[in-house]
Structure formats: structure tokens, C-alpha cells
Amino acid sequence: MGQSFNPGSIAVLVVEDDALLRAEAVDLCIEAGFTAYEARNADQAIRILECHSEIRVLFTDIEMEGSMDGLRLAHAVRERWPPVAILITSGRRKVMKEDLPENGLFFAKPYPPDDIVKALNGIAAEITR
Amino acid sequence: MTLHAKLGADVGRTDSLRMADLVRRYDWASTPLGRRETWPAVLRTTVEMMLASLHPMCVMWGPGRIFLYNDGYAEILGARHPSALGLPTEDVWPELWDELAPLIDRTFRGESFAFRDQPLTMTRNGFEEQVWYDFAYSPVRDERGEVVGLLNVTSDCTARVSAQRQRDAAIERLRAGEGRLAALVEASSDSLYTMSPDWQEMRTLQGRGFIANADAPSVRWMDGYLFPEDQADVRARIDEAVARTEPFEMEHRVRLADGSAGWIFSRAIPVRDKEGRVTEWFGMAADVTARQRAVEQLRDSEAFMRGVLASSNDCIKVLDLDAKLAFMSEGGKRVMEVSDFNAVAGCPWPSFWEGAGNLAAKGAIAAARAGVASSFQGYSDTMKGNRRYWDVQVSPIMGADGKPERILSISRDITDLKVAEEARALLAQELAHRMKNSLAMVQAIVTQTLRQAKSMEEGRTAVGQRLSALGRAQDILTRSNFTEADIHDVIAAAIDPHRVTEDRISWAGPRLILTSQQALGLSLATHELATNAAKYGALSNDTGRVAMTWRVEDGAFAFEWVESGGPPVTPPGSRGFGSKLIERIVASYFEGEGRVDFDPSGIRFRLTGMPGGAVGEA
């Protein structure tokens, strides 16, 4: 793809409670050349973020069990790890721009895999500029 | 009276002055009659007779028509007395002279006249009163037969005249009264009838068109005019009136002239003779059929409206313009659980509504007062505190002047509808979500399958089979609104396309409810294992077997797939999506682990984790 950066140095954290969808999202990120971590809820996600500073992208579903849903997780991450880019997806509802953290991107489920890859590449380009 | 008083003063006996005295003392020498002593016998006799009479009398004597009168006549003269004595008659009655002179002259020529009922106005009793007198003029002759004077004998006929006048007036009044009565009877549309004292016989009846006339007295009148079923009631009322001799009064049904049933208001009074005995009854009957029918119709229509109101489950209320509760239908009290309407009568209606409903109710009242109907929906508690959701129509009730007079409010309890509507909306939302989720799963399965497919052909087959397995699991989940499924149903559906003969695939375990994700996952895992067995394992020859068992122990779930009798097993070189699915993804749905053993005697798969739903009986 003629990328001028090494995406392998950029990690994506996939947060999704459905194992099948999570596995596919992880494969999508890896296929695009990124390192991928996975969590099935917000609490797991926070713990992983605390251990892996190389995570630069949060890719999260909204509906999930646990102390926070994906939107609250996104806001919490923006608060605590401001540089982490945020991608949000949901099959349940249309999310308004004002509900998202600043610069957050929303993808309705089911999303075209290429849209996610493009967004990830765009974020990687910003980071490595 | 001045002259009278002067004269009285002269004689000194004004209080008991009598004409005889006046005549005796009068200075006759100054008159054409000359001194009394010189009067002819006929004059003396006439004057003496006159003065002695109690009848008012006067005398006109000689060519000078000199006027003399007695005490009775003095009253007729009034103020002219006593100066009239000895004057020429012309001077006594100057205003009547033209009329009197010819008559007086004719009397002097020998004729007699009588004048009856001559009206006079007298003040003899100190006030003016109308009196009537008869006058009789007769000539007085001397011994030679010459008429020398006129004697006027009068009598007061006031009593007779006034009695006659009163009688004439009374007769006139009676005549007028009879005329009016006759006109009244003719003008009235009421029927008139007369009955014998005991009402056994009807003597006359003028039906006035609406009931038949009675042509002759009849003792069978009841059969003619009354229906058999009404006769007893009417008879009872008649007997009561007859017994008490009090007016009979009754509104009752009759047979009309055309034979149909009608109603009359009948009233009769007893007519008595001088001795007080009842000689007959006189009655009138008014046709009140139309009124009676109107009353019946009104009664029917009122009963109808009451029935409609009572049978409706809508809460139908009437409010005054201040929105105070004035009426509530029976059905309304039922649904609002009102046991005593007095407890809520007069209460402001909008206060029954809470929150947005309160504002809407006030708005609807304002609109109704402006003559506009409106509707809203909202929550309101019943009198027993049960929360209900109502559909409310509020409309003005217009008065005769076209302005809103009162307000009609009809509330329908649509709580069940509201609950169903909310449930439906929730379900629709949930379905949309699940559909999106299913599509996301389909997308993941397709992408994962295609990522490792060696050819388009292989990819198409694998995608088709996996989606088919997903679809069969969805079928089962549909029965429970996509929330749960029994493990037996899931296994049976998943294995169905792979069954070769009845006994080569078996499964056993307790009834167990799986979550939707567990059901979909286990269905996909069973499909992967069966597909692999058909290609390489126990189902690839004619004798191999597959046994599935599961159990729940101490809250832990364990599922096993054991193949036997197939070709020797060799572990595959690479692990594909199928392995990932059964080992990682499905295990995740059970929050546990999945492991495949490539035992040479047959593949074994073991899934352990948490049961998602409820454990049933085996």
C-alpha cells in the first residue's frame, strides 16, 4: 500500500462482547498490518490500556455488559489517554456526533471492512507525520 | 237659600217651617191672586187639599200661572224653595218654560197629562243624587166648568226605576254571559259530556271529532269509549268521585273515533238541584294524545340514553364551563372506580391529570370554552389509585344561543393498548438490533471463511453451509423472541443435514436452556464438527459413529463430541476458521474453553464453561 510508516508499531484495542465479531475485527486490524489487542468489556479494556502504551486506537462497540458501555468507555479513554484515537460502532442505535468524544468516528454495524482499514490508516498517517 | 233664611228669620221658625204656614203668611195681595180671603172656593179647596197631601204636589193658577206647592214638592224644588211660592211658573222654571208652557196651556184647555219616570237630580240629602218622579197634570175647573188652574200630582218612583234598571242590567249581563259561554263551548276543541248522578248512564257526549258522538243516552258507554283493560281503573276513580261528590279528574286512555287508542284529560263536576241533590255530572275531556305520546317518546328516549350511557365503558362526563365535574356516566364510574359520585362532583377536572396530562387537560378546556373540540392522551389514576392511560375527547356542548354552555369529556381506558404499543415498539427496536447483529455475524462468517478459502468454489460452499447452520439456529430462537433455546432442539437442528442413518449419530443430556449466542455458537460448532467428520472423520465411511453428550455439574457445563469407527485420525497441518470457531469463539459464549483432541481412534471435542440459561429436568 506504499505506507511510509510501520503500522506494526501502532496497536489497536478492539472492544466487543461478541466473540465472533471480536475475532473478525481483530483479524481485520492484523490484516491491515496493525497490532491488535482484544477486550470483551470496558473493564478489561481499561486494564489492557494501562499495560500497553503502544495502543493508539480504541475500536469499540457500544452495547456491552459491565460497568460502562462503549460510549462511556470512549469518553473515559479520551480523558485519560488523550492521544488515543477513537472508533465507535453499534448496531443498536444511530449515534449523534455530539455524543462522541472529539474527533471520534462512528461506524454503523455491519460496517464495510475497508472503511475501518481506511480510518486506521488515516490515524496511523497522522501519528507518524 | 238666602231668601229662605231671610224668610225664616222673619217668621222665626226656620227649623220647622211648613208650607201651610208659608201659604197662610204669604202676602198674596201682591199677586194676581189677591188676598186669601178673596180667593174663590175652588182655589181655596185645591190649595187646602194640596197642602194636606203627603204626595209632592203643586198648583199653577190663573192666567198668570201662579205657583203654589206643598212640603213634598219643596224637596223637588231644592234651592228654589221657598222663593218659588207665589211666582209665575215661568219664573220658577225658566229653563224648562219653553217645554212646559205648551203642556200647561193644553191642560188649561182641558187635557190631562201623565209623565212617568222623569229624571231629576236632587240634593235633598246633602249630596247630589239621581231620582225619578212621575208627574200627572190635571185641569182644575170652577163651578161654571172653566179651567182655572192646574194641579200637578207627583210621586217618587226612584225605587221602582232603579230596581227596574238593575233588573235590566242583570238580564243584559246574563244574556252576555250566556253568549260568552255558548261561544266558549263552540270555540273549545274539548269534548263535552253529561252523565247520570251515578255515572251508569251517559246522557250526552259531543266528541268534537276525536272521539265518537253519543247519539242517544247509553248505559254501555264504557264499552264504547274505553278498552277493556282500562275500565277497572276508570271505574274506581268514578266511584271515588261519586262517593265523595267531588269533581272527577283523570287522564286516561280512550278509544278514538278512528278506533285507535288515544289519551284524554277528563274533568267532570256534579250539578245539583235546589235541594243539593246531584242531578247529573257535567264534564269536559281534552285530547292529550299527542302530549302523552311525546311524554312516552321522551321516556323511551331517556331510558335509551341512560342505557347507552350505562353500557359504555367509556368515562362520559359533563363539566360546567369552569371545568367542574357535573355528571359522570354509570360506565364511567365503573372504569374510574368511583363508588360515590358526590365525592368527586364539583371537583375541577384537570386536577385528575398528572404531568403533561394536566397541561393537556387545561388546554382542552380552554379550547372547548372557545367552541373547539380537541383530544389528548395521558395518565390518570382511578379513584382507587390504579394508574391508567386514557384517550380523551373534549368537546363543547352548545347552548340554544350557539355558545358553549357546558363541556363534554369522553375518556377511554387504553392502558392495555398503550402497554401493547410500548411492548411492540420495544420489540421492533430489539428486532432491528438483533437483525443488525445477525448481519454483523454473517459478515464476520463470510469474511473469515473467504479469508482462508483456497478457491471461490470452496468459499461459496463453506459460506452457504455455515449460514445455513446459523439460519437453523435462528429458527429455534424465533420461538422465544430470540432470547433462548433448548439445547436438544439446537443440536437436533444443527446435525439434521449431516445425518446418514438413524443410529450413527447420537446425543444425550439434560434439558438445558441456552442463551441466544450460546445457541448460535453451539449450532455453528456442531456444524463444523459434523462437516469435518463427513470429510475426514467417522462419517466419511459407512461404519463410524458420533456420540454427543452434555451434563451440568456443580454449575459447570460440559459438552463432548466423540467420534469412533472412522478412518485413523491425523492432525491437520493448519488450523482454519472452523478450529477458531469451535475452540475460541464458541467457548467464549460459554465463558469457558474448547479443545479438540486428534485421538487416532477418533476426534474428540470437549467444551466446558457456564450454562447460560436454566437447567431443566433430564
Summary tags:
heterodimer; A: 129 residues; alpha/beta; Rossmann fold; 5-stranded parallel sheet; 4 helices; 21% strand; B: 618 residues; alpha+beta; Beta-Lactamase; 4 domains; 5-stranded antiparallel sheet; 40% helix; 27% strand
Question: What report would you give on this structure?
Answer:
The complex is a heterodimer of chains A (129) and B (618). Chain A is α/β, with parallel strands linked by helices and 129 residues long. Chain A has a single domain (7-110), classed as Response regulator (Rossmann fold, 3-Layer(aba) Sandwich), CATH 3.40.50. In chain A, 39% of the residues lie in helices and 21% in strands. Chain A has 4 helices and 5 strands; from the N terminus they run E-H-E-H-E-H-E-E-H. Chain A has helices spanning 19-31, 42-51, 70-80, 113-128, and strands at 11-15, 35-39, 55-61, 85-90, 105-108. In chain A, strands 2-1-3-4-5 form a 5-stranded parallel sheet, sandwiched between helices. In chain A, helix 1 links the parallel strand 1 (11-15) and strand 2 (35-39). Chain A is globular and about 35 Å long. The model of chain A has no long low-confidence stretch (mean pLDDT 89). Chain B has 618 residues and is of the alpha+beta class. Chain B folds into 4 domains: 2-156, 2-Layer Sandwich (Beta-Lactamase), CATH 3.30.450.20; 188-293, Beta-Lactamase, CATH 3.30.450.20; 314-413, 2-Layer Sandwich (Beta-Lactamase); 465-609, Heat Shock Protein 90, CATH 3.30.565.10. Chain B is 40% helix and 27% strand. Chain B has a 5-stranded antiparallel sheet with strand order 2-1-5-4-3. Chain B has a 5-stranded antiparallel sheet with strand order 7-6-10-9-8, with helices on both faces. A 5-stranded antiparallel sheet of chain B has the order 12-11-15-14-13, with helices on both faces. The longest helix of chain B is centred in the C-terminal third of the chain and has 38 residues, at 415-452. Chain B is rod-shaped, with a radius of gyration of 66 Å. Chain B starts with a helix and ends in a 9-residue tail after the last strand. In chain B, 26% of the residues are buried. Residues 1-15 and 614-618 of chain B have low confidence and may be disordered. The chains are: A alpha/beta (129), B alpha+beta (618). Chain A binds chain B through residues 18-24, 27-28, 31, 40, 63, 91-92, 108-110, 113, and chain B through 429, 432-433, 436-437, 439-445, 447-448, 451, 517, 521, 580-581, 584-589.
